[in-house]
Amino acid sequence: MSEKSFPTGSEKKFNEFLVGEYLKYGSVDEVMRKHKYAIPISYANYQRILDKWGIIKAAGPNNKLSEAINFLHRMVQEEIPLEKLYKKMPPSFMTSAVTLYRVLGYIKEGITRRMGTALILSPENNDNLVLTAVDISTPRFDLGKKFGSISLPMTFSRIRDTRENAILRVMQYEVFTDLAIEKKVPVNAIPNRPKPFMYLDIADVRVEVFKIVLPKRYSKVRDFSSFRLKDFKFLNINNLGKLEKQKSQFRVGVIEAMKGYKKFTGLKKRNLSFNPLQFKSDMNYFLSDEAVSKTA
Predict the structure, then answer these.
(1) Gap between the Cα atoms of 210 and 162, Å rounded
(2) How confident is the model at residue 65 (pLDDT cuts 50, 70, 90)?
(3) Dihedral of CA 223/226/229/230: which sign?
(4) Residue of 273, 266, 257 whose CA lies nearest to 207
(5) Which residues span the domain enclosing 169?
(6) Please, what is the end-to-end C-alpha distance for the chain in angstroms?
(7) pLDDT single digits (tens) 124-135
(8) pTM value?
(9) Up-side HSE of residue 178: CA atoms within 13 Å toward CB?
């Protein structure tokens, strides 16, 4: 790839290019690799630009954990023992059987070791609407991961993250990517000292789910952008029964998150105080069943 693959002659455009590529690929290493190390900038200066733009670093563990979740999801769908399914995996499958058994063991024991953050985003004055989008990350047909599954904005998080930064990461990578490149993400939408209304366990990941009210200025579908999601759309939780019948079109945990949100709105309307709701994905419920451990 030649140097013409990135802007020249304008420092601002070059820096915006660097930010955009980072949001697309998730690490400086991956950006450099994709451009065959032709970008004329050091790793340290690249990081300084990301810091100047206020970009929150992407959080792992990325590929292997996503792969494990997709594997376990297929295991549930087909009701097939782990070892039998594992033998069908192609050489490109990175996750070891030992890791899969370990994650399965954590699920059975109700242990979570990693963290994620998901956002329920609604426009002002309409709590019934929830922002969703179509996942356009690389499909893994060998794992049964459909291209184009409906998702909520959701990313992995680090334990050391502040909740404000965890929320901002999701907004930058999955909701307002174009605005992040322009340094215009509506950070004022993030509540002071935000608290999740729900904890959702997906595999061995505990996802904190937050409600965010979108400012009117940023509530139109055209305002949303991401390298990971497309076809943004508001779904109405009053249609949850109908959506559940289409559950196969949704990513793992999304329907459960919407169920939790509907319960949350009901409690809020009754002016009841409560601790964060605790839900497990249906996949976790299935895999925690002792009958599954016997077949595995």
Answers:
(1) 13
(2) low
(3) positive
(4) 257
(5) 114-280
(6) 47
(7) 989 999 999 999
(8) 0.90
(9) 7
